[in-house]
Design brief:
The structure holds 2 protein chains of 2 kinds. Chain A is mainly alpha-helical. Chain A has 15 helices and no strands. Chain A has one domain: ABC transporter involved in vitamin B12 uptake, BtuC, CATH 1.10.3470. By secondary structure, chain B is mainly α.
């Protein structure tokens, strides 16, 4: 198909979606212009709104970086959802297990490491299944998502339950991440916390590792020319497992935002959906750290904007728009995804 | 006897959505397009059925409306993946999101509720002396149950005997060769995906008709369980339905156990708490699927052009 025809089709499809959205807003008895204005002021119109948008973007930076990392090895990690869930669980359990008086310098790194290790183990398992048995990672990570959902449902309602509460015991005070509201008065009351700078730093570190480190170059070689890499003596099995394990660790660390940054405990449902949205963030961000951060910001603003207009139209209208953005990005990025994988 | 009939009704009601979604998945994936949007078809079909049932009071029209909704979602998926060449997994994620959020928006606009539709105006079957018999009779009178065998047999015959089915398989195994023989690969794939969406969505109608209302997110991950049945059934309709029935039986067992802990054998209770045992039962389909794709358990080989 000619590129111009393709672009035209994508634009037409996007317009159709926007038109439908307007129609829905109008059917709900509201002015589309007023709803849009409210969504924009609610997400970026005030210091609090901006802080909330950044907070909503935080787990998406983690999962976006996670999906992007595996994609460089041409592996499609759609298990970020489950990896984030075990990250939440591990941060909550290990954070609560730490002694109450544990110093910050010890407790926070231990809780973060727990989230990373749990997610990394789950991702690494999918990588090992791929390297050892040739099991496609899309299937294995989907099934592992299901297993994790069953296991966490049981754990939160059973063994980890504290009396009538359906969440875990609170984590040690030292494991909690610094709050933006404590440093900047205008951000007070928002959920923004130190998990965001950590996520951005991790996205840059992951990118640096892929570009410069020996192991990272092996992962890229696996992604772009697996046979050539094998012929040149690259340990492709090791690179497969490593790529999925690092990806899983990044996704697991998304749990740090919820458990160590916002709630102070782990519970069922934290991080639901961020693994799947992370796929869109990785694609829209085209695999670069800045791109991932900006794409996460866009999706964070849409989520926050949806909440701002919830009184007028259901916030799900903005989720429909998210789905449309994902489809448009996937269609526009079809060639770039192919070329990046082939490059 | 009463308990057996109740359990049988539960197995049927749990297997039917899974089995139909699995057949829809087989039809779609055999054309060489990875289809994780079965969840969207079930949810969209459930909603379409609720709208039609509330408007007409007819369970048959509700079932047809579900299939139309599924075909529409299948068309969105086909347009994105086949025509615009979007990555199938990414498009599947988007279509799932679209169905989850879209049904909630429509729920709000049509019925001014965030969580569920009004109760469906369907006549309840007359009360019978036996609870088991009423449960079973209610299940047997559900239109998706009569349509399902036709669809399963149709899918099996179409894929193995018809020209269309052979073309679908050719597109899934070797699209370039199919194209060189003059098979319009894109069109065949689009047809398979739309058809798959319609079949899978009938399973959604069963969810709504059984529950007598639509509830937000009521598909509850069944689309992924159906995908497990597709893989375990090696991308063949009848085998996939058999696995869906097995998974449905497990889930009926799980809900029976949830109602009555004493059903768990004493030998098991010595090792696992009843809740833990239920979790193990729920986890089995996922675990079995992993074993199957690891090749531990027969060999499950996907269509070559998949993913």
């Amino acid at each position: 198909m000619k590129p111009r025809t393709r672009a035209l089709e994508v634009v037409l499809a996007a317009s159709a979606v926007l038109l439908t959205l307007n129609l829905v807003v109008w059917l709900a008895g509201e002015s589309p212009r007023r709803v849009l204005a409210l969504a924009i002021t609610g997400s970026v119109g005030s210091a609090y709104g901006i802080a909330q948008t950044l907070a909503k973007a935080t787990p998406l930076v983690w999962t976006g970086a996670a999906v992007a990392f595996a994609l460089r090895a041409r592996l499609f990690n759609i298990g970020a959802e489950g990896q984030c869930m075990v990250g939440v669980l591990a941060a909550g359990v290990v954070g609560a297990w730490l002694p109450a008086g544990a110093p910050w310098a010890l407790a926070a790194p231990v809780a973060l490491a727990a989230a990373a290790l749990a997610g990394g183990a789950l991702g690494g398992l999918a990588g090992w299944l791929r390297a050892r048995f040739g099991t496609h990672e899309v299937i294995s990570t989907l099934m592992l998502n299901g297993l994790v959902a069953v296991a966490t449902t049981w754990l939160y309602s059973g063994p980890l339950r504290v009396g009538a509460q359906v969440h875990t015991r609170p984590v040690a005070a030292g494991a909690l991440l610094p709050q933006a509201g404590d440093a900047v008065a205008a951000f007070r009351g928002s959920a923004l916390n130190a998990s965001l700078p950590l996520a951005v730093a991790a996205a840059f570190a992951a990118h640096w590792y892929l570009s410069n480190a020996r192991g990272g170059v092996a992962i890229r070689a696996l992604g772009s020319a697996p046979r050539a890499a094998e012929a040149l003596g690259v340990d492709t099995r090791g690179a497969t497992i490593r790529a999925m394990a690092v990806s899983g660790a990044l996704a697991g660390l998304a749990g740090s935002h919820y458990v160590l940054g916002v709630k102070g405990y782990a519970e069922q449902g934290l991080g639901a959906g961020v693994g799947f949205t992370g796929i869109a963030v990785a694609l829209l961000g085209a695999g670069t750290p800045w791109g991932i951060a900006l794409a996460a910001l866009l999706f964070g603003a849409m989520a926050q904007g949806g909440l701002a207009v919830n009184a007028l139209v259901p916030s799900d209208a903005l989720t429909v728009a998210q789905a449309a953005v994902i489809l448009a990005v996937a269609a526009l990025g079809a060639s770039s995804l192919a070329t990046r994988e082939a490059a | 006897m009463n308990g057996v009939m109740v359990f049988l009704a539960q197995v049927l009601s749990a297997s039917l959505p899974l089995g139909l979604a699995a057949v829809g998945g087989v039809l779609s994936e055999r054309s060489g397009v990875a289809t994780i949007s079965l969840e969207a078809y079930l949810l969209g079909g459930a909603f379409g059925a609720a709208v039609a049932a509330l408007a007409t009071g007819s369970a048959v029209l509700a079932s047809l409306a579900a299939m139309a909704t599924g075909a529409a979602l299948g068309a969105v998926f086909a347009f994105s993946t086949v025509r615009l060449r979007a990555h199938a997994i990414v498009a599947g994620v988007a279509v799932n999101l679209l169905a989850a959020a879209g049904t909630r928006v429509a729920l709000k606009v049509l019925y001014d509720s965030a969580s569920n539709s009004p109760s469906l105006p369907l006549a309840r079957s007359a009360a019978s002396a036996s609870v088991g018999w009423s449960a079973l009779r209610e299940m047997l009178s559900s239109p998706p149950l009569w349509i399902a065998p036709l669809l399963v047999a149709g899918a099996h015959l179409a894929l193995s005997k018809s020209v269309f089915g052979l073309r679908v398989t050719a597109c899934g195994e070797h699209p370039a060769a199919a194209r060189s023989l003059g098979v319009p690969v894109d069109r065949v794939r689009a047809q398979a995906l739309v058809l798959g969406g319609a079949v899978a969505a009938l399973g959604g109608a069963q969810l709504t008709l059984h529950q007598r209302e639509f509830v937000a997110y009521m598909s509850g991950g069944r689309g992924f369980l159906a995908l497990a049945a597709v893989i375990l059934g090696r991308w063949q309709p009848v085998r996939a339905v058999a696995w869906a029935a097995a998974i449905g039986a497990l889930s009926a067992l799980e809900s029976t156990l949830a109602g009555d802990d004493t059903v768990v054998p004493a030998a098991v209770q010595a090792v696992l708490s009843p809740a833990a045992f239920r979790a193990v039962v729920q986890a089995m389909p996922y675990g079995l699927t992993l074993l199957a794709v690891m090749g531990r358990f027969g060999r499950s080989r996907p269509p070559a052009a998949l993913g």
